[in-house]
Amino acid sequence: MDPSQVKIPPMKDLTVDNITENVIRINSLCEDERMKYVLERLVSHLHDFARETRLSSQEWMAGLMFLTEVGKICSDVRQVTEVMPHGDSMSHDPKGEPLLVVCTLKDTNGNPISDVKIDIWETDSTGHYDVQYADRNGPDGRFKDSLVVDLGKAGPEYAKKYGVSEDHALLTYDFVLVSDAETSALRERNSKVALDKLGRKVKIVNGLPVPDLD
Questions:
Q1: What DSSP string runs through the chain?
Q2: What is the pTM of this model?
Q3: For 59-81, what is each residue's pLDDT tens digit?
């Protein structure tokens, strides 16, 4: 879009009280209904937060510097997950306790689903994720004994199947894959309930809520 061709809506003389309205007016030029709604709510919440807490200039700058530093530590491998063969080891931590992870994936009717990729993220023996290491030059996985779930033992069946000892720590995941139709229906229902409580009339566009102004 050529900025010179954009017709900016009439703006009010800027004050602390009307800055939100001015920004929303500018964002109203967005042609995507959902994006326009998201921007409106984001701006409203952020501005209300700033007004409520009376952010100082130093605090505002500290927030900007934090976001700047977050951007600086991103790299071409930070969000990359290495694809591992079935039954392979994803850990390069010699001090970590070996852990066998067994995952099952079924639909909502209990039928198994094949050829699905599962992402697994765990910390290493020191409690760090691989992305927290400055010398990281590729995807890596490091496991740590979980403080949230109870770990079992591999036992004879898994020990024989995966070539590990019977005392090998075992963590099992049972996933249920929900269809797109089921996901959309659930999202629509929950969105309407949540926004009705806020007194907002909404309609669903492409499975996502936007204000219903009709």
A1: --GGG--PPP-PPP-TTTHHHHHHHHHTT-S-HHHHHHHHHHHHHHHHHHHHHT--HHHHHHHHHHHHHHHHT--TTTT------TT---B--TTSPPEEEEEEEEETTS-B--S---------TTS--GGG-TT--S--B-----SSS--EE-HHHHHHHHT--TTSEEEEEEEEEPPHHHHHHHHHHHHHHHHHHTT--EEEETTEEEE---
A2: 0.48
A3: 989 999 998 988 887 766 665 56
